[in-house]
Amino acid sequence: MVGYTSKLTYLQVNIFIRWQIGKLACFLSIYIPACLYRYLFVFQIFTL
């Protein structure tokens, strides 16, 4: 019984973590391109 409950809790935690990571990835996917463009722009300035 203890093993079953810990397994269930582990699954719930795993799903929760994956959901949080997915949410974070969605949030970051909006900002990452902007950051990349900014870094590329700065990099181009330094390489000129």
- Whole-number average pLDDT? 76
Structural category is mainly alpha
DSSP helix count? 1
Low-pLDDT segments: none
Sheet with most strands: none
Number of domains: 1
Distance from N terminus to C terminus (CA atoms, Å) equals 67 Å
Shape: rod-shaped
Total beta strand runs:
0
Oligomer: single chain
Fraction of helical residues: over 70%
Give the strand content. under 5%
Radius of gyration: 20 Å
The helix-strand sequence is H
Give a quick rundown of the structure:
Keywords: Membrane, Transmembrane, Transmembrane helix. The chain is mainly alpha-helical and about 50 residues long.
Q: Can you tell me about this structure?
A:
With 48 residues, this protein is mainly alpha-helical. The chain has one domain. 96% of the residues lie in helices and 0% in strands. The longest helix has 46 residues, at 2-47. The mean pLDDT is 76. The chain crosses the membrane at residues 21-40. Keywords: Membrane, Transmembrane, Transmembrane helix.
Throw out a few tags for this protein.
single chain; about 50 residues; mainly alpha; 1 helix; rod-shaped; transmembrane; membrane; transmembrane helix
Q: How is this fold's topology laid out?
A:
Layout: H1 2-47
